[in-house]
Amino acid sequence: MTLSVSSVRRILLAKGIKQSKQRRRGKVHQPRSRKPQAGMLWQIDASSFAWLEDRGPELMLHGAIDDATGMVVGAVFRPTETQEGYFTVMKQAIQQYGIPLGLYSDRHTIFRSPKETLTLEQELAGETKPLSNFGKAMADLEITHIKALSPQAKGRIERLWQTFQDRLVIELRLLGVSTLEEANRVLPKLIQKHNRKFAVKPQEAESAYRELPGGINLDHVFTVREYRQIGSGQTISYGGKIYTFAEKLPRPFELKTVVEVRKTMQGELLVWHQGHALRLYETEKPKRQQEIKTASPALPRKPAANHPWRRPWNSPSRFSVAQMHNR
């Protein structure tokens, strides 16, 4: 006899036999309410998906969304999840909207330093805690960087990826996009279309965005940062090459001074010193001038006229004179 699960359950309940252990219900995550002002908090993440379906390679979409309005403030496609992709998103968003008060991300090593202790160069540079290059950029812009412990904590952008995987894929298909370059070219218009349809008004009309100060160059903020020592001839070794300063310094650095070298997204190298960028250019390694010491020939030494060596070898006085000489 074959009975369904529901029939067995109905028969057991009719006989007064109940389930001995009540099934525990899963915890329901309580959605966090939106921030009241635009610019109070951004959420940033990346999503790997077949955005071009079978027409092109699988791409990684980097994006940031405003928590209060649900507006996508920046987005870019890259082949993989990269620091440069997140830098590009932040630069886009800040240039268009301003500097937010806070940023929410996951705990990827792009966002946090895997090292728990500072290196000697970092201590000499005055750093107090280890930060990734992305974290240092956030510190320069005075953005509070929060690293989420679970995907639910940044649910706003997780739901954005679900929407994009339904709608953005179709938009790219209708446009016949099949390459990374084409996808990035049409992405800004598609983001604008998405924002017009899904963005909402914040609870408070006043914006929390801060204006970018005039003295800050974002190209010098979103950089890869390392520490190097000044070598002979005001040179710096970086990436197996030798660099020196493009402009004459008012006061040269002392030998072995530790400086911060920044590499921009455009590949430009510069030394960051007291809030100023000192450009570098590639040069040749200075050659050391070695002094070549030549040994002068020894002057000939002639024995004296009464030296025992001048006497005949069988002379009876040779031995006695030699003994006197040794004494």
Structure, explained:
The structure is a single chain. The chain is about 30% helix and about 20% strand. A hairpin with a 5-residue loop joins strand 9 and strand 10 (about 270-275). The longest helix is centred in the middle third of the chain and has 20 residues, at about 155-175. Strands 6-9-10-11-8-7 form a 6-stranded antiparallel beta sheet. The chain is of the alpha+beta class and about 325 residues long. Among the domains are: about 40-200, Ribonuclease H-like superfamily/Ribonuclease H (Nucleotidyltransferase, domain 5, 2-Layer Sandwich), CATH 3.30.420.10; about 225-285, no CATH class. The chain has 8 helices and 11 strands.
What is the CA-based Rg, rounded? 37 Å
The level 1 CATH classification of the domain at 42-198 is Alpha Beta
The helix content, as a percent range, equals 25-40%
Summarize model confidence as the mean pLDDT. 86
Strand arrangement, major sheet:
6-9-10-11-8-7
Low-confidence stretches: none
Major β-sheet profile: 6 strands, antiparallel
Assign the CATH superfamily of the domain at 42-198: Ribonuclease H-like superfamily/Ribonuclease H
| The CATH topology of the domain at 42-198 | Nucleotidyltransferase, domain 5
Please give the count of helices. 8
Approximate shape: elongated
Structural class category: alpha+beta
- Give the SSE string: HEEEHEHHEHHHEEEEEEH
- Give the termini separation: 129 Å
CATH architecture assignment of the domain at 42-198: 2-Layer Sandwich
DSSP E strands, number: 11
Q: Percent of residues in beta strands? A: 15-25%
